[in-house]
Fold this protein.
Amino acid sequence: MPGRWWTMIEGIGVDVVEIGRVQRTIDTWGNDFLGKIFTDQELAYAHSKRNPVHHIAARFAVKEAVAKALSTGWSGGFRWKDVEVENDAAGKPSVVLYGRVKELLQGSKIIVSISHSENVVVAFALIER
Ligand SMILES: CC(C)(COP(=O)(O)OP(=O)(O)OC[C@H]1O[C@@H](n2cnc3c(N)ncnc32)[C@H](O)[C@@H]1OP(=O)(O)O)[C@@H](O)C(=O)NCCC(=O)NCCS
C-alpha cells in the first residue's frame, strides 16, 4: 500500500528438525526425497558445505516454518519447492517464492532465520505486509 509507513505481521512460524531423521530419510529415499523437496540451488548450497545434511535439514525447517506462518499451512495446493532458501554473500538466508505460494504472498515480505546445533536445526519465519 503506497504511503504507508507501518507494516503488519501476518504470521509467524517456527520448526525444529532432527538432523538424524533427515539423514535416515535420505538413506532410505535418496534422490526421490531430495528432488521432491529441494531445488537444485538448495542442494548445491548444501553440498558446498562440510556437513550437507545440516543445511538440507535447515532448508526443510524453513519450508515448514513458512508453512506455519501461512494461515493455510500446506493445504493450499502448493509444493515444497515453491519455497526456496537462498543465502547472500554474508550467509544471511532469505526465501524466493514460486507458484501458488508466490501468488498467496503477493505484497508480503518473508523474513527467515536459521540456527544449527550438532543434532537439530531450527528455523523461524515471519510474514509481514
Ligand atoms: C551469522 C553468524 C552469527 C552465525 O552464527 P553461527 O552460530 O555460526 O550460526 P548457526 O550455526 O546457529 O546458524 C547457521 C545459519 O545462520 C545463518 N546465517 C549465516 N550467516 C548469516 C548472516 N550474516 N546473517 C544472518 N544469518 C546468517 C545461515 O542461515 C546458516 O545456516 P545455512 O548455512 O544452513 O543457511 C556468524 O556466522 C557471524 O557472525 N557471521 C558474520 C561474521 C563472519 O562472517 N565471521 C566469520 C567467522 S570467523
Notes: The helical segments are 19-29, 31-37, 40-47, 52-69, 99-104. The mean pLDDT is 93.
